[in-house]
Amino acid sequence: RNGWWNFYCFDGHKSDLIYGAEMEFGTPLWRLGSKNYCLLPQQKLVCRVTTEAQDRLMLLDWRQQQLTFLDAQFSAIHSLDAVNNQVVFVGASFHATDAVYQLHTEYKNLQILDKTVAEGGNQGSWRRPTLMHFTAGESRTTGWFYEPTGAHANGEKLPPLIVKVHGGPTGCAEKSLDLRIQYWCQQGFAVLDLNYRGSVGFGRHYRRALYGGWGVVDVADVEAAVAQLISGEVIHAAHCFISGSSAGGYTVLSTLGKSSLFAGGASYYGISDLARLRAQTHKFESHYLDWLIGQWPDKKDLYEQRSPLLHEYKMYAPVIFFQGAKDKIVPPNQSRLFSEKIKELGVESRYIEFADEGHGFRQSINIQNCLELERQFYGELI
Question: Model's pTM, two decimal places?
């Protein structure tokens, strides 16, 4: 009602607001069965609270209308569960990737139960992100900016830039440790992890700004952010790149087909044919494009206008495509055809296919190979 995912109590007849604030107490249900809150004794609940795409673990006493921090070290939290006053959740921070934690809400003793990647490593060389704000017309966007460590990859005073476009598209760029971003920083690139309009964690108005505007609004936000970094002499104007997967890959291809700001880009199993995506996507997202583009077939012309594959002749910069042979969302022949078409037009293009991957790469050796091939590709374009 107030434009934010807040808590309400339904008594069988009407719903009343329990606690109202410009914070998100909920998220899109990308993980079915995942909880964002758990009920505790004495009319309290433990919850994940999000502001500007940063999560906090908090305790809400709805009788006292009091919201308090339980632990402030985390920047990304999901999969909560609780028994009495013992809370178990998956959390991540700038210093560590996802791990399973247990916390007693009264004694505040935090215990790690399991972790996927050990903390440590050369943390002294890790770049902590800076929250930056950008303007696109009358709208404001945010992003996490990472400076490179050591020598710039281009050997220039100002570093090259990689814009990282999150998937979803109604996902978000989080502040928590991303070892792939740290890899790019160590390779001498600056990285902008952008929360374009449509990202979650900023309220309903921001999320719905992408309504009917996918392929337009997100592209405008990417261009505005890069232009601002260039004008501020933060990054090298001739060495800007863009990378994204799935829905993020769609924004990559859409941007490279409209903007001359970029020297190249990387599409990881990126969507390029919207009509085909609509016909072949799984049931869970079967009507997602009605919201992002428009009702089919009434808006068929928009589907065609915003499908990069149908406008390959407008591609401004070289592209490297990474594709899984088992991908059922973005068929391999779609990315392969796109690569071949733009190559015929004289635009540099490479197509890399992995026989054992689907939509979303899982094999660590393949992920490592992708990073190295992407780095080589950018290096040749600098």
Answer: 0.93
Q: Do residue 32 and residue 148 come from a single domain?
A: no
Number of structural domains in the chain: 2
Domain annotation covers residue 16: yes
Q: What is the amino acid identity at position 317?
A: A
Q: Which residue has the tokens 């392929």?
A: 215
Q: Report yes or no on 245 lying in a domain.
A: yes
Burial class, 343, CB count within 10 angstroms (exposed 0-12 / middle 13-18 / buried 19+): middle
pLDDT (tens digit per residue) in 276-334: 888 877 777 778 899 999 999 999 999 999 999 988 778 889 999 999 999 988 889 88
Tell me the CATH number at 146: 3.40.50.1820
- Please indicate, yes or no, if residue 145 is contained in any of the structural domains: yes
Tell me which residue range forms the domain holding 76. Answer: 7-115
Degrees (nearest 5) of the Cα angle 164, 170, 175? 50
Of 77, 97, 115, which residue sits at a domain end? Answer: 115
Verify that 235 and 335 share a domain, yes or no: yes
Do 140 and 172 belong together in one domain?
yes
Alpha helices in the chain (DSSP H): 179-186, 204-207, 217-231, 247-256, 274-280, 288-292, 300-305, 332-344, 364-381
Q: Mind listing the pLDDT tens digit for each residue in 149-194?
A: 989 999 999 999 999 999 989 899 999 999 999 999 999 999 999 9
DSSP string over 65-105: TEEEEEE-S-SEEEEEEEETTEEEEEEE-SS---EEEEEET
Cα separation of 135 and 257, whole Å? Answer: 22
The reply to whether 1 falls in a domain is: no
Identify whether the C-beta of residue 13 lies closer than 8 Å to the C-beta of residue 59.
no
Lowest mean pLDDT among 222-226, 236-240, 244-248, 284-288: 284-288
- In DSSP notation, 87-152 reads EEEEEE-SS---EEEEEETTT--EEEEEESS-S-SSGGGPPPPEEEEEEETTEEEEEEEEPPPSS-
**312: DSSP letter:** G
In this structure, the number of other CB atoms found within 10 A of the CB of residue 30 comes to: 14
